[in-house]
Amino acid sequence: MKKIVVVTVILVLCIYTFESFASIKSGVQFKDVTIDHALALAEKKQKPLFVFCYSSDSKQSTVMLNKHFVEPELSEFYNENFLNVKVNVQKKEGEVFTYRYEVKRYPAIYFINTNGNVISTYTGEINIDELKTFGENVMNTYASYRGFPAKIDEGEYSMQELSTFLRLEGDYPNSEKLVNQKFKVG
């Protein structure tokens, strides 16, 4: 009888431990790093950043952290496609981020490319379906951006594509030449 109790206790502890580890892995996996470290990781992994700016005393932020970001389909999509970072605007790193990216309200969502340029933003609460669609649209823009240098070589690009590329790339060395070619100037 004593062996049955011991085995039962061990099994219960194993199940509890397994469930604890499983719950740690569920949801959007946010990195707890500085923005500069996150950008370096994003470059290494060739993934854009998804940054969630929140305040610990914001009801909207709490709903998003405890409901939205644990939804399995959403978390799988974000974990696969982005390097995820959450920034508490009430802490030092949050102050650095809000200053650098001029965050005015929160919760705020920032998608940032590996150069540190903003792809897209959203402020306020957003539902799970909109958040997934928003992420998908960002990934489409990012994929176009990443493939744009090949389009430059082929000369097959629209002004909208060029505009998006230059906005996301920042200081691109041949930007004036590309615009002039598109307008057939000089």
Number of E-type strands: 5
Oligomer: single chain
As a whole number of angstroms, the C-alpha radius of gyration is: 22 Å
Q: On the 0-100 scale, what is the average pLDDT?
A: 82
Major β-sheet strand ordering:
1-3-2-4-5
Shape: elongated
Q: In whole angstroms, how far apart are the ends?
A: 93 Å
Report on the structure:
The structure is a single chain. With 186 residues, this protein is α/β, with parallel strands linked by helices. The chain has eight helices and five strands; from the N terminus they run αβαβααβαββααα. The protein has helices at 2-25, 35-45, 59-66, 72-81, 92-101, 128-154, 159-169, 175-182, and strands at 30-31, 49-54, 83-88, 108-112, 118-123. A five-stranded mixed sheet has the order 1-3-2-4-5, sandwiched between helices. β4 and β5 form a beta hairpin. α4 (72-81) runs parallel beside α6 (128-154) and α6 (128-154) crosses α7 (159-169). 24% of the residues are buried.
Which helices and strands occur, and which strands form pairs?
Blueprint: H1 2-25, E1 30-31, H2 35-45, E2 49-54, H3 59-66, H4 72-81, E3 83-88, H5 92-101, E4 108-112, E5 118-123, H6 128-154, H7 159-169, H8 175-182
Parallel strand pairs: 1-3, 2-3
Antiparallel strand pairs: 2-4, 4-5
Q: What is the gist of this entry?
A:
This protein has 186 residues and is α/β, with parallel strands linked by helices. The protein has 8 helices and 5 strands.
Question: Which key terms come to mind for this protein?
Answer:
elongated, 186 residues
